[in-house]
Automatic annotation (TrEMBL):
Its main location: cytoplasm. Residues 15-92 form the GIY-YIG domain. This is UvrABC system protein C. Residues 197-232 form the UVR domain. InterPro entries: GIY-YIG_endonuc (IPR000305), GIY-YIG_endonuc_sf (IPR035901), GIY-YIG_UvrC_Cho (IPR047296), RuvA_2-like (IPR010994), UVR_dom (IPR001943), UVR_dom_sf (IPR036876), UvrABC_protein_C (IPR050066), UvrC (IPR004791). GO terms for molecular function: DNA binding; excinuclease ABC activity. It holds the Pfam family UvrC_RNaseH_dom. Keywords: Cytoplasm, DNA damage, DNA excision, DNA repair, Excision nuclease, SOS response.
Length: 602
């Protein structure tokens, strides 16, 4: 049931196209949607019964905003921009890059062929994407041997090594005719388009000849080349006689979960398949439209010549925005491919449901148990801090982030303490809390729903003091308490630092234990790295002739005492270190090593 405030806002909604942003109690945008009719769509959230993820979303909404657009196409574009900007919790979110490489033939006077992870509008030829990176690299090496272009850095007045090996046309010392490059590129494009029969036949003959001559190593190399061609250029059997590069999307919906299959059809073959699984808020058709728009908004993506989608997807708007045909096939092999994608989507979802149910109890269910024990509304994001030092030196702090019970390592942060030079838990906590949340405020980033401190009242109250009295933030701060065996015991929370006991066999308790262990591990690992680096730095500083510049150079190039000690005088001199200083470094470090070795035997 909507509050009186929301009911009033609902009456003012316009019956026009646009985007809406749902907000929670912390004014965080938790969902962004688009609609042809804002009044009808937004009201449906509060005037209808819901279940699953939609019900959870509605239970957290305390406010919303709308932005009216002139057309439905504009609402498509605005929705993607808002999702990327705010990263709402309840939206499907895709990473910016595909993670798959392309094979590129550069457009220049002396072109070259190479692997690239970034696609640009530079007139070059791009082939891919290729799911098997290693196979793509080996295929490049094969092409460079059979259809060489330029493999050197350009004119240098003399032939390069690759020219002598037959893998470069000689731009290093001569002017290569454009026609020769064009002829090679023609062969490469044909090869990468799947016309591999002649090349494979030639390799098979050479492999048999090598085996008969007992040149087994060469026969093995030729066998590997055949394999790389098959997994890169001939990934799947021919599924169509139409060579049009196309992407195909279909889905299967059940119990509020959307299973998506994407087929990449290149060179008449199914080259790659992606599968995604999401709990959704909106209709399947609307979520699919948003997914497709985000999919092609990633930087490392080459548009196909055609996109195939099931019935119900807004093909006209997507086609208009992307500038390529978006169609729903009614019959024939394209229709059969759509049905195959739907079948795969269904199988993936059915296979995962049991695992999803278990995961839901372990993650979101655990978050709910913690929230209930602390008498707080259900949150999604927990940030946890811990400090580490050795006898007050090399003080560091570490932050780990858990979203819905899962660690998100992309959000982890490390801090070298700058204002604290001795073991002071309160001062360390104040500095790291001040630095973390001042930055989030300046960058207008979302705050966590809870902050966990790996310590007792001292750390918890120091964090609360900075948040409330310095930064004006109202974020619940919870202390994680350990027993005499250094194991998770209970939580501290509230104005009187009350002990909150969780059932030690509950999922909530296990989650607290995982958070506490993870933040401790992360802090200790970071501290050891800092301490080892400082220890190495101090030992180098004790050597006469080693100043800050030489010390930093050694640290950067070699990184450890053992590597520096085992390096030769020539290796050290190659870094620009004088002969006398290099000898002093060797003698000093070897002496220290002997002393350490002798001590270890005492």
């Amino acid at each position: 049931m909507a509050s009186e405030y929301l009911e009033h806002k609902l009456t003012l909604l316009p019956a026009e196209p646009g985007c809406y942003m749902m907000k929670n109690v912390n004014s965080q945008i938790i969902y962004v949607g688009k609609a042809k009719n804002l009044r009808s769509r937004v009201r449906s959230y509060f005037k209808s019964a819901h279940e699953g993820k939609t019900a959870k979303l509605v239970s957290e909404i305390v406010d919303f905003e709308t932005i009216v657009t002139s057309t439905n196409k504009e609402s498509f574009l605005l929705e993607i921009t808002l999702i990327q900007k705010h990263q709402p919790y309840y939206n499907i979110r895709l990473k910016r890059g595909t993670g798959y490489p392309y094979i590129k033939i550069t457009k220049e006077r002396d072109p070259e062929i190479k692997i690239t992870g970034e696609v640009k509008k530079d007139g070059a030829y791009y082939f891919g994407p290729y799911p098997n990176v290693y196979a793509a690299e080996e295929t490049i090496h094969f092409i460079q041997k059979v259809y060489p272009l330029r493999r050197c850095n350009g004119f240098q007045g003399r032939p390069c090594l690759y020219y002598h090996m037959g893998q470069c046309l000689g731009a290093c010392f001569q002017t290569v005719p454009t026609e020769r490059y064009d002829n090679q590129i023609k062969h490469i494009k044909s090869f990468l388009s799947g016309n591999t029969a002649k090349v494979k036949q030639k390799l098979n003959v050479e492999m048999k000849q090598a085996a008969e001559s007992m040149e087994y190593e060469r026969a093995g190399d030729l066998r590997d080349q055949l394999h790389y061609i098959e997994v890169t250029v001939e990934k799947q059997k021919i599924i169509s006689n139409d060579k049009t590069p196309r992407d195909l999307f279909n889905f299967y919906l059940d119990k509020g979960w959307l299973s998506i299959q994407v087929f990449f059809i290149r060179q008449t073959r199914l080259m790659k398949r992606e599968k995604r699984l999401f709990p959704i808020v909106d209709t399947a058709a609307e979520e699919m439209s948003t997914f497709i728009m985000q999919f092609y908004n990633r930087k490392n993506n080459v548009l196909p010549k055609e996109i195939l989608v099931p019935k119900g997807i807004q093909t006209e708007e997507i086609s208009d925005i992307l500038g390529i045909p978006v169609r729903t096939p009614q019959r024939g092999e394209k229709r059969e491919l759509l049905e195959l994608a739907e079948k795969n989507a269904r199988l993936v979802l059915e296979e995962k449901f049991r695992l999803l149910e278990l995961d839901e109890r372990k993650s979101v269910g655990a978050m709910q148990e913690i929230a209930d024990a602390l008498n707080l509304p259900l949150g999604h994001k927990i940030e946890a801090f811990d400090h580490s030092h050795i006898q007050g030196s090399d003080l560091v702090s570490a932050l780990v982030v858990f979203v819905d019970g899962h660690p998100n390592k992309n959000l982890y942060r490390k801090y070298k303490l700058e204002t604290v030079d001795h073991a002071d838990e309160a001062a360390s906590t104040r500095e790291v809390i001040r630095r973390r949340y001042t930055r989030l405020l300046k960058e207008h980033e979302n705050m966590p729903d809870m902050i966990f401190m790996d310590g007792g009242e001292i750390q918890m109250n120091a964090a609360k003091d900075v948040l409330e009295n310095e930064l004006g933030l109202d974020i619940p701060v919870v202390g994680m308490v350990k027993n005499n065996h250094h194991k998770t015991a209970d939580l501290l929370f509230g104005g009187n630092d009350e002990h909150i006991n969780l059932n030690p066999k509950s999922q909530g308790f296990y989650l607290v234990q995982r958070i506490q262990d993870e933040v401790h591990r992360f802090a200790i690992t970071f501290h050891r790295k800092v301490h080892n680096k400082h220890s190495l730095s101090s030992r180098l500083d004790e050597i006469a002739g080693v100043g800050p510049r030489t010390r930093n150079k050694l640290l950067k190039e070699m990184g450890s005492i053992s590597k520096i000690a085992s390096a030769s005088i020539e290796d050290l001199r190659a870094l620009g270190i004088p002969q006398n200083t290099a000898q002093l470094i060797k003698v000093s470090l070897q002496k220290n090593a002997e002393i350490a070795k002798g001590s270890s035997h005492d």
